Amino acid sequence: MVNKNIYNPLYFEGESTTCEICCSVQIIKLEIRLGLSYFICGNCNHASQMISKLQIEDLFKSSQEKYFGENSSLNLVAESILDRERTSHRRVVFNRFISEKIKVLEVGPGAGSFLRWMCGKGHNVTAIEDSNFLAKELTLIPRSEIIMGNFEDCKLPHNSFDLFCSFHVIEHALDSRIHLELAFKFVREGGLAFIATPNGNSWQQRLFPRLSPNFDSAHLRVFSQKSLRLLAEDIGWIVINDSTPEYSSAWLRVLSKVLRKLKGEDEETTAGKYQINHSLGSKILLYFYILLSFPFRLLQRQLNGGNENFIVLKRPI
Fold first, then answer.
1. Which residue, of 22, 34, 112, 231, has the fewest CB within 10 Å?
2. Dist CA 4 CA 49 (whole Å)
3. Would you state the torsion angle of the CA atoms of residues 269, 115, 164, 199, taken in this order, to the nearest 10 degrees?
4. Mean pLDDT score of the chain, rounded to an integer?
């Protein structure tokens, strides 16, 4: 049972706490670097960032601007081979569970790769994007309705969507319980939700926690498979599938953290600096890396150690 009394809002003023998911008191503190620490549950492996009540909203706004604002270097990089790998997996999941034209609500579509694909397939898609810069870019996509604003503040009709998509948004949400509760209300009975978020039990996080791409000031929480299932089921969702995809980018992001530390660079102000460029030589090297690492990444996924949680939920009829 999720501890609803401490779940909202997310903040920690002292050194001792209780897991907001499973109520366990087996809590350890992990300092990633100066100014960034997490409480990690020894029972369900759920991680919650240590942050004061006064800091949390300022952090959310600043991280949105840093990663998704007009001046973010991440917005200047075209979709890469690595990005297409992630989008391809989402298409496979979509086609596995969806066989007809539907109404979709996507929150935080980012650059809109998956949004474009769904619209291109003839689905009726409404997207909510908190970044004003990205929202303006997304309005150029045909057959889509773009709402600029915070998902938790949007007034949408209940029971009106067949599918809810939230890809790497819930870890940024001020209250991830409300995030899933609203999705539950907006989706019709029998409707689905696709949720993707970093995996707190990934091999990257377990072997090299201080180098894990999961720990970032913008990530207020990092869910394990267990903690995400517990939260979703407590709200009323039925879990019909969950997996831990391992994309080629995850270990490369660990490597980029090593490079930043060796060079004494700030990890967040240099976000996007080590994106794979599009020269022919770099593409050839990347294809070799993807090919050679595939057996290892497949094993990592099969042992539930991939660096992404991808869960498919169903609202009961």
1. 34
2. 17
3. -40
4. 87
Q: Which pTM does this prediction carry?
A: 0.89
Query: Mean of the pLDDT values across residues 115-136?
Result: 93
Q: Phi/psi of residue 222, each to 5°?
A: -130, 115
Domains of the chain by range and CATH?
69-314 (3.40.50.150)
pLDDT value at position 277? 59
Taking the C-alpha atoms of residue 22 and residue 84, their distance in angstroms, rounded to an integer, is 35
Mean pLDDT value across residues 192-214: 96
